[in-house]
């Protein structure tokens, strides 16, 4: 049976790859972007299916709560149901914590965290009524570890990790599934640039961190870039799974680093066990 998708951030990158893969196999998609004109080619290429219009292009900024709710409602009215929700929209604010302005941090959380919350809150009444549905949250390898100059981005992605883990427990009894996707680097912006912290908005640099910037740029250049089309095929597989995992890494470039990070955390808690015991009183 054809699935109905609601995908944010559909104009380019992974979001565009997800939309194209779903349409190519005969699913129907409400594709959102801040500029709906960027979706015109999707309508031209995929046209209509036996189920009617295959693509519903929607102009929507995830930071506009009212627009998000209206877009989700329109999707349900247009297609008659809603099966898969992909929270993909967002950006990366780059800068040392000392360099960030208050507005930059607020903008980062508005787009990456609050925007995702608005989509979930808008979709859940429809999914609960159906007794089914699958919510995909695009997090990042940066939601599992922390690197210099990514404090704002990490804050948003770490928050999404906890929020969606709680969400999964809250909605399981309604027949709704939640999967957190944690991509490494993908070649999504005109070249193989695998740095997940190198394609966003930049804070005004403080010269005190120039050496750190140079070292980080060299280290991140060694990470392999993934193919968005391959990621999209795996997402389709997960959307069809009866028992999908809560979390999935997309790409293996960060696997060794993550294994070390988690081993270091466990060792840290073990090494400080006496302090923990004494702190309890």
UniProtKB/TrEMBL annotation:
InterPro entries: NAD(P)-bd_dom_sf, SDR_fam, SDR_oxidoreductase. GO terms for molecular function: oxidoreductase activity. Keywords: Oxidoreductase. The keyword Glycoprotein does not apply. Belongs to the short-chain dehydrogenases/reductases (SDR) family. This is SDR family NAD(P)-dependent oxidoreductase. It comes from Kribbella sp. HUAS MG21.
